[in-house]
Amino acid sequence: MTNRILFLPMAALALGAGAPPPAAHGSKITVTVTDVRNGKGLLRACLVSSESDFPECKKAAGHHATSVDAHQGQVTFAFEQVKPGHYAIALLHDENANGKADRALGMIPKEGFGFSRDAPVRMGPPKFSEAAFDMADKDKAMTIRMRYLL
Length: 150
Known about the structure:
Elements: H1 2-15, E1 27-36, E2 42-48, E3 64-69, E4 73-82, E5 85-94, E6 103-104, E7 108-109, E8 112-115, H2 128-131, E9 133-135, E10 140-145
Parallel strand pairs: 1-10
Antiparallel strand pairs: 1-4, 2-3, 2-5, 5-8, 5-9, 6-7
């Protein structure tokens, strides 16, 4: 982001007065997360375009990831430069900031989680198709509710 700021004045001079700004390389998805139980740790989020990458969020083409400080109640963040496509979002409230989803008895999530479209959680995480949404070439806003089982 710093490079853009440094080069912006030079680009504006090269374009001349009245020239349109350069085309963006995608749109923005603004995500508001509700029901965050405390301000401990981080909220980790990933945006994937492939069923095989969801919800584990493997690093693959079309993968976007971000982490923000947790705040009790509500947290807002954005994925920038998202190209049109079919995506799903997975969230983790990593309360101890250890970079993983902690579990009790090896399978019950100890920390909060959430999915785009508030996809239902039954005997495991939702399918990609349950959380997936279409992204056009315009900005989008959505709300995801954080859930805690323990």
